[in-house]
Amino acid sequence: MSEFSPIAASSSSTSSDNSNKTSDFITPDKIKKSHSKSPSFWSKNPFPQSAPGANAVKGHIVDNGIPLSIFPISQNKLCLVVCGLPARGKTDISRRLARYLSFFHALEVATFDVAEFRRKKCREDGGEEATSRLPLFEESNLEYREGFYDDALNEMRDFLADHDDGVAILDAVCPTHEWRLKVKTEVQKMGVKLVFIEVHNNNQEFLDTQINLIASRSPDYANCSDNAEAETEIRKRIASYEEHYEPLGKDHEVESKWSFFTCDHSRRHFIVHNVTGHMPQRVINFIMNLRTTSHSFYLTRHGQSEYNVVGRIGGDSGLSSDHGMNYAKKLAAYVESHVKKDKDGNAVPARLFTSTMRRTIETAQFIKRETITVTDDCDASIEHEWDQMRPRRWFLLDEIFAGTCDGMTYEEIENKFPEEFELRKVDKLAYRYPRGESYLDVIARLEPIVIEMERHREPLLIVGHQGILRIIYAFYTGLPRSEAPYVSIPLNTVIKLTPSPRSCETQRIMLYRPTIHLPSDGQDEIPESMRPTDTSVNIDPPSH
């Protein structure tokens, strides 16, 4: 047994094992017998406590990788009904919220988009070529529309019945009080806590963008060759909804007793009404910090460090005098021409995050900091001074802590602690370094960083570390957490992420190509499914 496993030696077996061992339950007879046990019996800790959160662990087998903050804090089901007029961003909010809850809170989350049920029903009735577009919202077709809601609610009921900690997100217009009451009545039958989230946004520029996206990307208009014609039809459909829409409100005699949250990001106006509980409050906090306009994130590792040169992990060394400093200068030039300016070459406000470690701070040292004048978002007649690329240093962005193995090479770890070395191979996501961290621990501490990233509207450069950037990249690109520890984050490269409602565009820009291969740190394992198809292009040079 490893010298770092004193707790594991006395810990109970996994929850799945315990559930099958009825002899482990404490009974009055056992309590009586225990009083007669010898002192040596008690010295062995015969009734060990399981690690907090161990009962919620799914799919992990490494005993030392069970942080409470990573797994569901309780088994409570929740239904979130995201409603509002079309083209207000409901689907975008629903999908991003689902991603946040599943990635950072390990919850079983499913979205039920009524529009998808409509498309499915239309295909069943008229074949693959049938149009799934509905006529204008009118009294004559309400019964037909209700069928789509029934289908969505039935599937949602099945999902929640199968998951003790399930979160169901219903993405639907729910245009009237009667419609919302029907949904609430059905959800109440499921015995699930319900929160309505009503989305408003009447900013004309935002609506024009949303309508254009629907016309060009929605499956409803896949067979429509004329984008202008599609946009005209969409506007007519929205107008028909507006004639009948009844806003959710605290002044309604019945709805005033419900739990709901209304948000209008265009006015930065939010109303929280009768919403209680830990998870509903986390949901509201996330939505309030969402941005409704797309902007890019730039992720880059620090330049080659002194520890990189000799293959040591962790530590707090500075940059190497040659390759490390060369990359820092290349990065500063790239920031000047691409991050701080738009496609027309005009200066735009931008942000800079680094960790508190020397190698990231030194990598950002040549990035020019200056003061520019920007126009107020709400009032164009007001101007502000902006501290361009002011470095914000976050300890939350510090590299995964290797604990006792900090500063060692992987060869040294394998020779000195062979059991630990093998455990890391078994479950890299959950494996925790002795007196250090696991990737699951890092996911827990990165949640506030992602909230900050969502909150800001400006282009953001993060100069970070391999383990940290892997998690951020996996979150935004939709990768499962199990693949996060294997994401390729090479040295000397900027990764540009541009999230959108249905995808995340990624671009890799290699800024510096050394004339020699840099030493590898042994962390370049990439699952077969994530390897580039074109092996002639070296997008992932050996890196630490």
**Shape annotation:** globular
Strand tally: 14
> Which range best describes the helical content: under 10%, 10-25%, 25-40%, 40-55%, 55-70% or over 70%?
25-40%
Mean pLDDT: 83
Strand order of the largest sheet: 2-3-1-4-5-6
Low-pLDDT runs = 1-23, 525-544
Distance between the termini: 29 Å
Q: Rg to the nearest angstrom?
A: 27 Å
Largest sheet geometry? 6 strands, mixed
> What is the number of helices?
18
Specify the structural class: alpha/beta
Instruction: Report the sheet-strand fraction.
Output: 5-15%
Write the layout of secondary structure elements.
Blueprint lengths: L5 H5 L4 H4 L9 H7 L4 H4 L35 E6 L6 H16 L2 E6 H13 L15 H21 L3 E6 L5 H13 L3 E8 L3 H14 L9 H18 L15 E5 L4 E5 L4 H11 L8 E5 L4 H5 L12 H17 L11 E5 L2 H6 L6 E6 L7 E6 L2 E4 L15 H7 L1 H9 L12 H17 L4 E5 L1 H12 L15 E7 L4 E7 L34
Parallel strand pairs: 1-3, 1-4, 2-3, 4-5, 7-12, 8-11, 8-12
Antiparallel strand pairs: 5-6, 7-13, 9-10, 13-14
